[in-house]
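Fig. S4 source data, part A: sequence.
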Amino acid sequence: MVPVFLYRSVVILKTIQKILIIIILQLFCKPDPMKATMMAVAFPGLGQIYNRKYWKIPLVYAGFAGLIYSAGYNSKNFTTYMIAYQDFRDNIAETKSYQQLPWLKDIDPTTYDPVLYPQTYQASAASYYKDQLLRGIDYYKRYRDLSYIGIGAWYLFSILDANVDASLFNFDVSTNLDIALFPVQISLPGGFTGAGVNMGMTITF
């Protein structure tokens, strides 16, 4: 029986071999926008490799890493605040995870906890900290969801970038092309004229 680590190593090596073959083949081919798009859809960064824009690959993965970290961080805190709020609202003395929150750790629970200290707690303090827990839940939920949306948007952006790079691969940016802006008169209703801006392109052969 083949060891698992050996099997995984073979799979990884084959994947790397395929990527290297693709890179070598594309060194001698003009990028095709459709192929670049499909490769970017199949795996983030592959479209940039296909277009030979290797310097963009760290940017693609740095964006994903940042957004994934943000999603994990906000998701963890959302769960923490949700559990803390539930513990604060129930009538079970043993559930008091809210006391471990950094901003509640140094506050005397006798002033705000109606379950553990029904004789000494203050209703206004209990209401205030309950609202703070709800705000924490809303805050981290919002940014967790925005992080997930950001991951999807960054994925689509990497696909669009690969497509645009392939489409403009042979775009002429030499000095033979010239674009100029110049003022013009525009005819307005009623026989009046107004000022405007026109754009012209000059191609030198």
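Fig. S4 source data, part B ends here. The two ends are 69 Å apart (CA to CA).
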